[in-house]
Design a protein that fits this description.
By secondary structure, this protein is α/β, with parallel strands linked by helices. The longest helix has about 40 residues. The protein folds into three domains: about 160 residues, Periplasmic binding protein-like II (D-Maltodextrin-Binding Protein, domain 2, 3-Layer(aba) Sandwich), CATH 3.40.190; about 100 residues, D-Maltodextrin-Binding Protein, domain 2; about 210 residues, MetI-like fold (Orthogonal Bundle). It contains 19 helices and twelve strands. Helices cover about 60% and strands about 10% of the residues. The protein is elongated and about 95 Å long. Helix 5 links the parallel strand 8 and strand 9. A five-stranded mixed sheet has the order 9-8-10-7-11, with helices on both faces. The chain has a three-stranded parallel sheet with strand order 4-1-5. The termini are far apart.
Length: about 500
């Protein structure tokens, strides 16, 4: 009996393992009754976006519905940041990545791709008007001429193309959204943007200031990515896509969104020999020193941003705190509102306003200085509260004694109150400085490539080295922040001895 029970258990375990290896995710999808597909609706039309009555629409929404129907389940959209969708796939939070993801040999080595569902090309877009860029050759700057600034979506095929073809000829700016790059071109913050043809076609009416420059280049393929071992799911999706190609379902969707063109009939031929035979990507281990060098260069940008913005934040915060406590009554209210507004709104929103909204008012600030200004203004609110607490910690008698000696209020503040308050607030100010080093990571949304932004960029191009890149990035942040902590402790000890 024991032997029989053991055989049954072993057989059950073997069947379970076989199921997990063969149809694991596909079986789970059918049991769940829903195909969870990952996309980023902030990327906009025509892929995934909100239509009338806030309904989710887009050509990939309709493709997902077709695939789910052919699998006998419903379609379930899962929102995620575009360049982080493969990570959601690895975590098991989504079943497939379906959001204009281009096929590359590097991605094929990490995740399994379905047959292509769309053939895309890249279109260069520039501003209309005298002296505008009309061709790819116009992008190349001559001797002594500043490089043209070109915006691309971070982690996209456009970025990879620019890196391979014009890396040293242009100043490449990375964006987290395609429309952000187009807006920057219209406002004159950058000179051109490289976008997938479906994006350029769809937004042509919304950005009449832009014009195509040159012919579309670099044909590539949109594919769906699944887990590397999910053979059954991949085959089921391939079958569903092939049926949709043959019965005209995909063609009808593409015609609806104005995307059908002469490249799309090749999809059936591509399906017969997919995936293409491509040499395995070179080992990223050999590139690690070069990747580390790029991270170190981005760390320098982080240091520069922090060292420029923090003194400015301290200066503004000190003035705000002084005005709130010792200024006239009509000044205190607005300064209090200034502090509460900045503390109550996120740094990311403030950076967007400075970089993207102010140009509509005729105030055009370069990305680097917009980052410095945004960080300084945001942290000035916190420094104002630190210094206000420092002022209140100084006994009131200190000010009264100074005034009785004939000092003016400003002289008493400068000679008596502020020096003591500065000593008191060293720990919280130092803590804010360390936090500022890490908050510079938000600046990548306005194309300033600091350490975290560089990590994301390198990870997208080298997904097999995410662990090494993460460790290097963590070490660099530690090397930047820990010496500051030691310096602050030394200052505290020095001031304690002076007071004693």
């Amino acid at each position: 009996m024991k032997a029989l029970v053991g055989c049954v258990m072993l057989t059950g375990w073997a069947q379970l393992l076989a199921a997990q290896e063969g149809v694991g995710v596909l079986g789970t999808i059918r049991e769940r009754g829903a195909l969870r597909w990952g996309g980023d609706e902030s990327g906009g039309a025509p892929y995934v976006f909100r239509g009338p009555e806030d309904k989710l629409t887009g050509f990939e929404v309709e493709i997902a519905e077709i695939l789910a129907a052919k699998l006998g389940v419903k379609s379930q959209f899962v929102q995620g940041q575009w360049d982080k969708l493969p990570q959601l796939l690895d975590r098991g939070e989504i079943d497939i990545v379906l959001n204009g993801y281009e096929w590359t040999p590097e991605r094929e080595s990490q995740w399994a791709s379905t047959i292509p569902y769309y053939v895309y090309r890249l279109q260069l877009l520039t501003r209309r008007g005298p002296g505008s860029i009309l061709s790819w050759e116009d992008l190349r700057a001559g001797p002594g001429v500043a490089k043209k600034r070109v915006g691309v979506l971070s982690g996209s095929a456009a970025e990879k193309y620019m890196q391979s073809q014009l890396r040293d000829a242009v100043d490449l700016k990375l964006y987290d959204g395609v429309t952000n790059a187009m807006i920057s071109v219209t406002q004159g913050q950058i000179d051109a943007t490289l976008q997938d043809v479906p994006i350029a076609t769809h937004y042509a009416s919304e950005f009449p200031e832009l014009q195509p420059a040159g012919e579309p280049v670099a044909p590539g393929y949109y594919v769906i990515f699944v887990g590397l071992k999910e053979k059954a799911l991949r085959e089921a999706l391939d079958k569903a896509l092939l049926e949709a190609l043959k019965d005209g379902s995909l063609e009808r969707i593409y015609e609806k969104y104005g995307m059908w063109n002469a490249d799309q009939p090749a999809l059936l031929e591509l399906a017969a020999s997919w995936p293409p035979e491509t040499a395995a990507p070179p080992s990223a281990r050999a590139k690690l020193p070069a990747l580390g060098g790029q991270l170190a260069g981005a760390a320098v940008m982080t240091i520069v941003l922090s060292c420029l913005s923090m003194p400015l934040a301290i200066l503004i915060g000190l003035m705000v705190a002084t005005g709130r406590l010792y200024g006239p009554r009509w000044v205190r209210g607005p300064l209090g509102a200034y502090v509460e507004f900045l503390r109550g709104t996120p740094l990311l929103l403030q950076l967007y306003v400075i970089y993207y909204v102010l140009p509509y008012a005729g105030i055009l600030i370069p990305a680097f200085w917009a980052a410095v200004l945004g960080l300084a203004i945001n942290y000035s609110a916190y420094e104002a509260e630190n210094y206000r607490a420092g002022f209140l910690a100084v006994p009131r008698g200190q000010m009264e004694a100074a005034l009785s000696l004939g000092m003016s209020t400003w002289t008493a503040l400068r000679r008596v109150i502020i020096p003591q308050a500065v000593r008191i607030v060293i720990p919280p100010v130092t803590n804010d400085f360390i936090a500022l080093f890490k908050d510079t990571s938000v600046c990548s949304v306005i194309t300033v490539m600091e350490l975290t932004g560089m990590y994301n960029r390198l990870y997208n191009n080298n997904p097999q080295r995410v662990l090494e890149l993460g460790i290097l990035t963590s070490i660099l942040y530690l090397l930047m922040s820990y010496p500051l902590s030691l310096f602050a402790r030394r200052l505290e000890g020095k001031f304690k001895r002076v007071v004693a």
